[in-house]
Every structure is written in C-alpha cells, then in structure tokens.
Amino acid sequence: MKEKLIISEKFSIEFIKKIHADLGHIGIKQMQRMISAVYTADNMTKNIKRICESCVICLKNKSRGQSKYGLMSHLGPATKPFQICSIDTIGGFGGSRSTKRYLHLLSDHFTRYAYVLTSSTQNANDFIKLIRNCAETDDIELILSDQYPGINSKEFKRFLDEKKIAIIFTSVNSPFSNGLNERLNQTLVNKIRCKINEHDTRIAWTTIAHDCVNKYNDTEHTVTGYAPSYLLYGKDVTFLPNELKQKKTEYDLIQARKKALENTIKSHNYNKTIYDKNRKHIDFKVGDIVL
C-alpha cells in the first residue's frame, strides 16, 4: 500500500481550493486522482466534489459539465378552448411587396388553434387588435407572453383588465418557458419559407402567412391527434370527398376533445421524463445567490 501524507480536514479544504485554482480549475476526477494519490484527510472525496461543484469561476465560465437544475413544469393543462392562450411575435419578415415585418401570433393551448396578425410595429394596438380578431375574446381566461414592451404597456394591461383576462409573463431571455408557442413559431416559419420559395411569381409574405396558418389549423396536430379547426369549431378537414364524409355530432366533438386532452397530458409526461432525467430539483430561498 502506497504511503500518504495525513492532513487535517480544515487544511485540506484550503489546499483543495488552491490546487483547483492553480491548475486551471480542473474537474472533480482529475482533482481526486492527483490529490488522493498523495494526501489523505477526513471527507477528502466529499470536499473535492463540493468545492469543484460550487466554484463560482467554473459555474460562470465552463460551458459543460455543470449540474442542470429545475424540472419541467406545466402551465395547466388547459381543459377547454381559450382557457390558456399564448402570444408571441416572429420578426425578420418583409420585402419589396410589403412594409410589414412582424407576424403576431395568438395560440390556444387546448385546441392548438392559431390566430395571426401581420404588422410593421410591435405596439400595444397590434396585440389588442390580435385579441379582438379572435371571435372568442370574451372566453380567454389567461394569456402567457414574453415581456415585449407593447404587451407590458399600460394600454395593453388596461385592455386586459377590461376583458377580465389574466396575464403571466415568462422570464426574460427564456423562450423555452413558452415552449408551445416557440414550437408553433418554428412550424409556421418553415411553412412560410417553403411557400415563398415555391412560387415563381412573387407573392407578398403576408398573404402566404395567412394561407399557411389556415393550412396549419386544418392539419392534424401530432400531439392532440386532431386538427385545431376541428377541436375548436367542429370543422371536418378529412381528405374524403364531401359525398363520403359522415356528419360529425356534438357528442363526437366532446369525445374528441376528451381524447385530445388525454393525448396532451400523455405527451407532456413523456417529454418530462426525458427532460428531467439528468436534472436536479432545488428549492431556492430568499437571499440565495444564483447565476
């Protein structure tokens, strides 16, 4: 057995910190191999791990190997149309045939139905008009949104108060907090880009955007298993000829909505299992310092 130098735990803690910093903030395994080969002390392995994992310099600057905190949560789920909606904006559009640059999007969490408004600005009036374009404005209970100045304005908040619509803002620079909308954004942008490059003749992107949203609403959603327009309005969007389509009843729609909710919960639970696999839950307290 190789002889080792015995040092006190108090001294070992300071020694570990110095070695960690002097050697360029090396990782836990390297620290253990180098120090434990020569020295021994009470709680040596435990202290090496604790010091490396809590090193502020490492936490701020290392791009990998850090513990991931926070488990996947779920707003809702919505159990009926317009119980929860999301608002978002996609920028970067425009061209010679349109002065409009933004696609404002309102999506219903339950049916996944999307409403859009194209505009050259991002002010409160745009978002108010977007909500008013939704025929079921009076049914909206809650809106989830990023902190755009137009949405965070007094004018827009006053409008929501009048409509008795609550609003929850996502954290700054955290688009994943509104994952449903971000995924829808990606879907619509891809559809619009494909359609723009599909035509030999130039068509205004605003016209293409509205057409793509209509097509999206009439397409079966991979999570719910139903087209948004069917779950919201009972619209039959199957490819069968009209002569062969069977008339859908109110009961059929109720059953479809129940199944859509089940599919939504099932999908969320599956994604949560994967997302939470390598993450940790932590309870923060007032006064805790976080990065």
Report on this model:
This protein is α/β, with parallel strands linked by helices and 291 residues long. It has 2 domains: 5-58; 84-275, 2-Layer Sandwich (Nucleotidyltransferase, domain 5), CATH 3.30.420.10. It has 10 helices and 9 strands. It has helices at residues 9-22, 28-36, 44-53, 56-61, 124-133, 154-163, 179-198, 205-217, 228-233, 250-276, and strands spanning 5-6, 39-40, 68-69, 84-90, 102-108, 114-119, 142-145, 166-169, 279-280. Strands 6-5-4-7-8 form a 5-stranded mixed β-sheet, sandwiched between helices. Helix 6 links the parallel strand 7 (142-145) and strand 8. Helix 2 (28-36) runs antiparallel to helix 3 and helix 7 packs across helix 8. The radius of gyration is 27 Å and the shape is elongated. The two termini are 44 Å apart.
The CATH topology label of the largest domain is Nucleotidyltransferase, domain 5
What is the distance, rounded to the nearest whole angstrom, between the alpha carbons of the first and last residues? 44 Å
Number of helices: 10
Radius of gyration: 27 Å
The CATH superfamily of the largest domain is known as Ribonuclease H-like superfamily/Ribonuclease H
Order of helices and strands: EHHEHHEEEEHEHEHHHHE
The biggest beta sheet reads:
5 strands, mixed
- Across the major sheet, the strand order is 6-5-4-7-8
Helix content: 40-55%
Strand tally is 9
Could you say which structural class the secondary elements and strand pairing correspond to?
A: alpha/beta
- Give the domain tally: 2
Mean pLDDT: 86
Describe the global form: elongated
CATH architecture of the largest domain: 2-Layer Sandwich
**Are there runs of 5+ residues with pLDDT below 50, and where?**
none
